[in-house]
Write a structure and sequence with these properties.
With about 350 residues, the protein is mostly helical. Helix content is about 70%, strand content about 5%. A three-stranded mixed beta sheet has the order 1-4-5. A two-stranded antiparallel sheet has the order 2-3. Strands 6-7 form a two-stranded antiparallel ribbon.
Length: about 350
């Protein structure tokens, strides 16, 4: 009983007013807490108090499709169907912007095309900000004129499919609606100057151009005078600096002569012969150093091979003795070892 439309309600667009909202969203509104607690037994007078408490506009939000209070009050207005004068007062209310938005949304659902353009287009001049809740449950900022433009142009606003309305041009052609008058036309008319003012501005512009031309000719004349005076001053400076230039030329001439003399000295036959001798001496010195280096390396390699042979022979003799050689053989080996050692010492002394 609480969700039925009032008995004396009229059909809107050929159907029950509550059917303008889809069945799924309508059932969610009936099951919501706000509808059961705040919208029960509301009348047109009490609906105004509830509308003044709205703090945002929106449709449904969340995963389980929860309706906003704005949508619940819209369905309640469709259920009780308030008079047209009350809806117009909602729209003309300038103190509470959400009350105006609720009345505009209801009129867009139930009103004719002429009423929508007549009562909603003046709201384009309202630039106040509105908070709107999106499907994710987050708030976003819109303006009243944007909200009205969506009501007149879009097919779905606040998750509700809006009834179709005729184009404004068609209504104007059928003389059912007056031509649209923008609030900016008056401002443009005030800013547009008259013909007399245009003539005065043109005359002032011509006078300003003539003054600029005269000033330009005076500037050119002064610049030519300055240029001629600077040339005369440069000629005088050139005369005064003639002696200094001559002294500078003599200094550069002496410098060039010294460079030529050094070049001739370097390029003389005696100098070339001396340079060749120096290069040959340097080359001979490098050859001697290389030869000495190679000799030292050969001696070192020879000593290393002799020490290796001696160690190898000694190891062989030791192995032979260990296998059971006689005592005389060991004494003979000892004597050979001592003679070899003395020979190595003598060789080392001679090298030192």
């Amino acid at each position: 009983m609480a969700n039925r439309t009032v008995k004396d309600a009229k059909n809107v667009h050929g159907t029950n007013p509550q059917y303008l909202i889809e069945k799924i969203i309508r059932s969610r509104i009936y099951d919501s807490k706000y509808w059961k607690e705040q919208c029960f037994a509301l009348t047109a007078e009490l609906l105004v108090d509830k509308a003044m408490d709205i703090r945002f506009v929106g449709g449904v939000f969340g995963g389980n499709i929860k309706p906003t209070p704005f949508l619940c009050l819209t369905l309640k207005m469709l259920q009780i169907q308030p008079e047209k004068d009350i809806v117009v007062e909602f729209i003309k209310n300038e103190e509470f912007k959400y009350v105006r938005a609720l009345g505009a949304f209801y009129l867009r659902l139930t009103g004719s095309s002429q009423d929508c353009y007549k009562y909603l287009e003046p709201l384009y001049n309202d630039n106040r900000k509105l908070r709107r809740q999106n499907r994710m449950g987050h708030y976003e900022l819109v303006h009243m004129d944007e909200f009205i433009d969506e009501l007149l142009r879009e097919e779905r606003v606040c998750d509700i499919i809006l009834p179709r309305i005729q184009k404004r041009l068609v209504l104007e052609e059928n003389n059912e609606l007056d031509p649209k008058v923008s609030a900016l036309d008056d401002d443009l008319d005030e800013e547009m100057p008259s013909d007399d003012e245009n003539l005065e501005e043109i005359a002032e512009a011509l006078k300003a151009k003539e003054k600029e031309k005269k000033l330009e000719t005076i500037r050119i004349r002064d610049s030519r005078r300055d240029r001629s005076g600077s040339r005369e001053r440069q000629a005088e400076k050139a005369k005064d600096s003639g002696a200094y230039k001559e002294r500078g030329a003599d200094r550069y001439r002496d410098y060039d002569r010294g460079r030529e003399r050094d070049y001739e000295r370097r390029e003389s036959p005696d100098n070339r012969y001396k340079d060749r001798e120096m290069r040959e001496k340097e080359r001979d010195r490098e050859r001697r150093h290389e030869r000495d280096r190679n000799d030292r390396n050969d001696d070192r390699n020879r000593d290393r091979t002799r020490y290796d042979d001696r160690d190898r022979d000694r190891n062989r003799e030791r192995e032979r003795v260990d296998r059971g050689g006689d005592r005389g053989g060991r004494e003979r080996d000892r004597g050979n070892y001592e003679r070899e050692r003395d020979r190595e010492r003598d060789y080392d002394r001679r090298r030192r």
